[in-house]
Amino acid sequence: MSTIVVFVEHKSGSARRASLEAIGAAHATGMTVVAVATGPGAADLGAQVGAAGASKLVAITGADKYSPDGCAADVVALVQAQGAKAFLCANTSTGKDLLARVAGALDCVPFADCIELRNEGGAFTVRRPVLAGKASITTQSDSAVLCASLRPNTFAVASGAGPAEVSSVATKGGKVVVVSIAAKPDAKLDVKEAPIVVSGGRGLREAGHFKLVEDLAAAFGNAAVGASRAVVDAGWRPHSEQVGQTGKTVSPQLYFAVGISGAIQHLAGMRTSKVIVAINKDAAAPIFKVADYGIVGDAFEVMPALTEAIKRARA
Amino acid sequence: MKIIACVKRVPTTEVQAKVAADGKSIDTTGFEYMLSFYDDLAVEEALKTKEKHGGEVIVLTLGPSESSKELREALAKGADKAVILVDAAWHTRDARSTAKALAAKIKELGADVVFTGRVATDRDQASVGPMLAAYLGMSCVTDVVKLDLSAQGGNAQRESEAGVETVEFPLPAVITCDKGLNEPRYAGLKGIMAAKKKTIEETPAPEMPNASRVLKVELPPARKEGRIVGEGAAAVPALIDALKNEAKVL
Predict the structure, then answer these.
(1) Which of A56, B151, B174, B190 is deepest in the core (most CB within 10 A)?
(2) A71: which residues sit within 8 A by CB, 6+ positions away?
(3) Chain-chain contact of B11 with A131 (C-beta, under 8 angstroms)
(4) E strands, chain B, where?
(5) Residue A263 included in any domain
(6) Total structural domains in chain A?
(7) Does residue B141 surpass a pLDDT of 70?
(8) 3-class SS string, A179-192
(9) Contact A47, A22 (CB under 8 A)
C-alpha cells in the first residue's frame, strides 16, 4: 500500500492539534500514514499519532535546536526511503516554511493552506483559497509526490487506533538554526488556530480600549485576540494578530468582530468562520452582511455585559 | 553585496473575484494591479542593505511587460536595475514553475542575498521564496520581522505560533519579509527623475510547464443571512441564547 508522510509539530512530546488533523486527513485517503517529528520529546508521540491514524512514527534525533533546512532534508530523505506518494503538514508558520523547502528539494509543486484533499485512485486533488479566500481553486497535482499543508481547524482528528510503531533516525543537520524562541506571554493562543477569535477594530477608538476585547477572550479561556488592519497600522496591536488579506486567514468556530466595519480585505480573512458575531455602532456597516448575529451598539456598553454573560455561561 | 529583490505584480486587495466562463480561472476584467504588499518590504530591505553594506540592488519580477510600472517605482526609490522575465500569463504558473524560472535568472545575475515578500497576495502560497533557496542551494529564513546582516551571514527574527524565533543563517540567503521588518519609503522627485534613465531589461520568461492542473475555480458560498439580535447591552441575553441554543457554539 502506498505511503503518506505527515510532519508532526509538538511541544516536548505533546502534539499540535493541527498536526493531528493532518494525520486524520492523511488517514482518510486510505494510505499508510508515517508520522515524522523532530526535537526533544519526538519519540514520545507514538500513542498520540497512533490514535490519530498513523501506523508508524519516525523520531528525528540530534536536532535539539530546530533547523528548517535540516528538518526539510530529514523529511525528504524519509519521503524517498518510504517511496511516499504524498507529504502533508499543518499550515502553520513552521509547516508552510517546511512545505516549500520539501517541495523545492523534491522538485514538486507545493499546495499551501489546503481546505480539501482527495485521493482518487492515486490522483490527488486539493482545494485551496486564493486572493485571501475571495475564491478557491481545485487543482490536480501532477508531481511525483503531492506536497501540501492543511489549514488548521478544517480537517477532523481521528481517534481510537493503537500506538504507532516508533523508530528513530539521526538528523542530517542544516545551515539555518533557530537558536532561541521568546515564548509568547502566558502561552497566548495563535489567532489562526484558536477555536474562538475576538477581533477589535478602529471602533474601539484607542489602543487601551482593547482591554474590552482581551477581557472577552479571557472569559472564554480558549479564545485568541485578533485585530483589523487599521489598528495594526496604527500600532495598537502586533501584526501577528491581524486578520485579513495582508494578515492571517482564520476559520474558527466562533468569530467576534468588535468595532470592525468590515472592509473587503477583512471579510476575506474571516468569512469561513462557522459563526460570526458583529458588534458595531453603525447599523449599515458591511460586517453585518456576513454576520450570523449582530448587536447594534457601543462596544463600551456591550462588551462588559457580554463578558460577564460569557463568564456566567461558562461557570 | 549583490542584492536582488524578487517581486510580483498582483491584483489590488480591493478586487472582487469573479469566475471566468471556463470555470477554471478568475475573470480579471477590470482588475487593477499593484506590487504585492510584502514585496514592497522586500524592496525596502534591499535598499537598506545596500545603504549599509554597499553594492547593487536589482529588482526582478516574472510577469507581464506592464510590471514596468511597479519596477519603475522601485528604481525611483533607489534600486539600480530591473529585470522582467516576461510572461503575460504569469498568474497561471504554479509555484514550482515560477520558482524555477526565477532561480535560473538569479543564478545568472548572481546574488549574496535575495529578498522577497512573505507571500504574494494573489495565490497566497508563501512558497516561492524557500523554493528559490532550494533550487539555488542558498539558506533561507521566512517571515522575517527583524534582520541583522553581516558579510558572512546574519541573525533574523521571525514570528511563529510559538513566539519570536531568533534564527542564525549563512550567506548566500533568501529572506522573506513580513510586516514589521521596515517601513517602505516613498520615491522622491529626484529619484523619480533618475529612474527615467535607468534600464528595465525585458526578456522572455523561460518556458516551464506546470506540474499541476486547475480543475475548478469557485467563489465561497454566500453566508446564510444573519440577523440583528438587538441594540446595546440589552441585546446580550438574546445573543447568548442564540449562540447556545441555535448555533450551539457555547
Answers:
(1) B174
(2) A7, A38, A60, A63, A98, A171, A174
(3) yes
(4) 2-7, 9-11, 33-35, 56-63, 81-86, 113-117, 139-149, 153-160, 163-170, 173-177, 200-204, 212-218, 227-231
(5) yes
(6) 2
(7) yes
(8) EEEEECHHHCCCCC
(9) no
Grid cell at residue A203: 471602533
Dmax (CA) for chain A in angstroms is 61
Does the pLDDT of residue B83 top 90, yes or no?
yes
Contact residues, chain B, for A110 at CB < 8 Å: 95-96, 125, 127, 131
Contacts of B163 in chain A (CB under 8 A): 181-184
Q: Residue A186 has what pLDDT?
A: 61
A97 and chain B in contact, CB less than 8 A: yes
- List the CATH number of the domain containing A222: 3.40.50.1220
Of A170, A194, A214, the position where a domain reaches its end is A170
User: Where in chain B are the domains?
Assistant: 2-204, 226-250
User: Looking at the structure, do residues A118 and A39 belong to the same domain, yes or no?
Assistant: yes
Summarize pLDDT for A1-59 with one digit per residue, the tens. Answer: 799 999 999 999 999 999 999 999 999 999 999 999 999 999 999 999 999 999 999 99
Secondary structure of B153-178 as H, E, C letters:
EEEEEEEECCEEEEEEEECCEEEEEC
Q: What is the DSSP letter of A85?
A: S
What's residue A187's pLDDT?
63
Helix (H) or strand (E) holding B37: helix B37-53
3-class SS at B219?
coil
Q: Which of B124, B161, B179 sits opposite A132 (nearest CB)?
A: B124
Are A26 and A147 within one domain?
A: yes
Owning domain of residue A296: 185-314
Nearest to A261 by CA among A292, A302, A237, A289: A289
Give me the residue from B13, B169, B231 closest to A246, CB to CB. Answer: B13
Is there a single domain that holds both residue A158 and residue A286? no
Q: pLDDT at position A302, please?
A: 98
CB B180 within 8 A of CB B164: no
User: Is B160 in contact with A94 (Cβ distance < 8 A)?
Assistant: yes
B219: pLDDT strictly greater than 90: yes
Q: What is the DSSP string of A244-303?
A: STTSB----SEEEEES----HHHHHHHTT-SEEEEEES-TT-THHHH-SEEEES-HHHHH
Contacts of B216 in chain A (CB under 8 A): 137-138
**CATH classification for the domain delimited by B2-204, as one of 3.40.50.620, 3.40.630.30, 1.10.8.420, 3.40.50.720:** 3.40.50.620
Is the per-residue pLDDT at B74 higher than 80?
yes
Question: Is the distance from CB of B25 to CB of B217 less than 8 angstroms?
Answer: yes
What count of residues does chain A have?
A: 315
Q: Which residues of chain A have pLDDT under 70?
A: 185-187
Q: Which of A118-122, B23-27, B42-46, B105-109 is least confident?
A: A118-122
- In the predicted structure, residue B144 carries a pLDDT above the cut 90: yes
Query: From the list A125, A175, A238, which residue is nearest B215 (CB)?
Result: A125
Instruction: Give ∠ CA B161-B165-B166 in degrees, rounded to 5.
Output: 175
